[in-house]
Amino acid sequence: MKESKDGVRTGRFSKSSSTDSYPLVLDIDDFKGEFSFDALFGNLVNELLPSYLEEETDTSEGHGSNDTMLNGHFRTPSDAAQGMSSPLFPEVDALLSLFKNSCVQLVDLRKQVDGKLYNLKKEVASQDSKHRKTLSELEKGVDGLFDSFARLDSRISSVGQTAAKIGDHLQSADSQRETASQTIDLIKYLMEFNSSPGDLMELSPLFSDDSRVAEAATIAQKLRSFAEEDLGRQGMAVSSVVGNATASRGLEVAVANLQEYCNELENRLLTRFDAASQKRDLSTMAECAKILSQFNRGTSAMQHYVGLRPMFDVEVMNEDARLVLGEPGSQTSPSHVARGLSSLYKEITDTVRKEAATITAVFPSPSDVKSILVQRVLEDRVPMLLEKLLVKPSLVNPPAMEEGGLILYLRMLAVAYEKTQDLARELRSVGCGDLDVEGLTESLFLPHKDIYIEYEQASLRQLYRTKMEELRAENQQSSESTGTIGRSKGASIASSQQQISVTVVTEFVRWNEEAVSRCALFSSQPATLAANVRAALTCLLDQVGQYITEGLERARDSLTEAAALRERFVLASVSRRVAAQAASSAEAAAAAGESSFRSFMVAVQRCGSSVAIVQQYFANSISRLLLPVDGAHAAACEEMASAMSNAEGAAYKGLQQCIETVMAEVERLLSAEQKATDYRSPDDGIGPDHRATNACARVVAYLSRVLEAAFTALEGLNKQAFLTELGNRLHKGLVSHWQKFTFNPSGGLRLKRDITEYGEFVRSFNAPTIDEKFELLGIMANVFIVAPESLSTLFEGTPSIRKDAQRFIQLRDDYKSAKLAAKLSSLFT
Predict the structure, then answer these.
(1) Is pTM beyond 0.70 here?
(2) Residues 197, 199, 201: CA angle, nearest 5 degrees
(3) What whole-number distance in Å separates Cα of residue 377 and Cα of residue 423?
(4) Residue ranges of region Disordered (predicted)?
(5) Residue 750 near residue 692 (C-beta atoms within 8 A)
(6) H-type helices in 194-241, by residue range?
């Protein structure tokens, strides 16, 4: 039987204790909510299975683990042979009946659910049809509502436009009424001013009431504008119209009275403005400034305010000069002026900033007033100071260096320009409208910048002249203190001359670097800067070129003096009576020559260092300023090369003189030290002397000593060219020297030893052509060693030296006895 609903909900399903008498009853509500098939199945079988489970448990306890199960039945040991026992699940039939009953009920329930679903579908379709019909009707209603709103909006817009037109008409009418009312008042006031010339006593109280000054000023300006405009029209009209002429005369009276009244009112406002300014009453000052702005846009008030500032008092501006320049008559330095200008300009800037704050709070157009204030600073106060600071000296009669020279003026100019530029930037930051502060600042220095480069060049020339005079004075003082004792021996010829100093050239470059920095400061355009820099560079090149050329020429003079001493020695040596004196003179000439050689090499070395300093300065500081202008850099390089050409010429001539000096001493040593027996050793049975001759040793020692200066001073191609020329001259001189002697075989061996010594020395020249020549000399020396019959095979590998070898063969001591002349004719033909 079916249980109550609560019973079903509690246990999900109900079943009687006897399955047949109380079949299972299923309800649709049992499947609602959280349905579980496992719960359904459990509720179906729970009442049947527990009894079976209890029996299974008892059987298991009775038989133990030896029980067996065959085809669903248990067997015990006692009846194992009897066959089949009772079934394992006795409730199977009950379960089958229960499941069949459940299936029947589930099928019925499904039919019931399907019927309900069908009815629900029909009802939903009916309701959906009704809903669609309702929505269609609503859409039609909304469309009609939108149309009504559109008509209403159009109507409202039309009404609004009509109202706006009415408002415009009303506003125009009110404006016309207001204008008419003001015109009536203005005509009334104009008639008052037109009453009689100079009579301002009968005016309305408006024009005399201090509390209505602003209104009176506005009306007066309108009246004057109207009257002046009318006068202009009347002046252009036909003069025959009597009414116009009368009106013109009447308005002239009004214009004159209005002008007089405006002047009086403006003066009255200015007086009030000054009184408020002394009390620092900014509100009253602002009120007056606003009213005064109606008179000529307030120009008079602006200028009046700026003109009364204490910073423009004459006493204050005179104090500026004392602060920067010091007491009258005192010598000022650029550093002192720089500090003074920095202090003064800072004070001016601070004052301007304070005034700018007041101006901003008082005037309706503060930028215009600031412009007037800054302009007054740059046109009055700063020029008065610069006029006393920058006194342009004369180029014809420049001030002496003791007084500072032209360089003092240029340094003052640079300091003043730089500091004034800083001041201009500070003033610009205050805010002064469209005022060209930079242009005003540049105009202050135009008289100085126009011819600036001429002063720069003149200053560089003055510095150079002064330095040269200083060096000459030092050299003269040194000469006087040293005396002329050493000169008599010829050893101090070079020391008495002024040597080139790299320090002096460095000073020239420092002057020029300072000048170029001023060029960069004063020249804003690249073309102008390049032109000024080239002008300054030209001065440097002229100075360095002249200085090192003169130094080389002085060093050459010492070489010339040494050569003169040698000439006197040669002339004196002709007379045998003065042989001893000649030897002393020869030593003096040799010492003078060696000293002058060393002196010239030092001069050449310092000349090269000086040129290198100039080239480095050009590369580091000048090139970047010239490159932006087409052709400027190339032209400067050509100019530098041209400026150094004179020095190169002097150096070349001096090096030639050095070679002459060296060769003269070599010839003297060879002439004095070389003996005839050196190359014709007596055949006394003593073995030959394989040492170099004394003359060779002296010459090599001299060359090693004197050329040490050349190796140090010269470098690169200059060194190579000098040593190659010297090697050629040495080779030629030795060959000529040996032509004066005759050689026997042992003498030939000594000659070969001498040639080896000379060759070893010239190998330090690193000149392959010279090495080759001395190697050939060594080969030719073999002509003195070999037997006459072997001469033909001596030059088989070197046919190029046969001609020179022929001259050497003639120097053999057996040339005549061995009749080598005939053999030579057959050998070299």
Answers:
(1) no
(2) 165
(3) 10
(4) 1-20
(5) yes
(6) 213-236
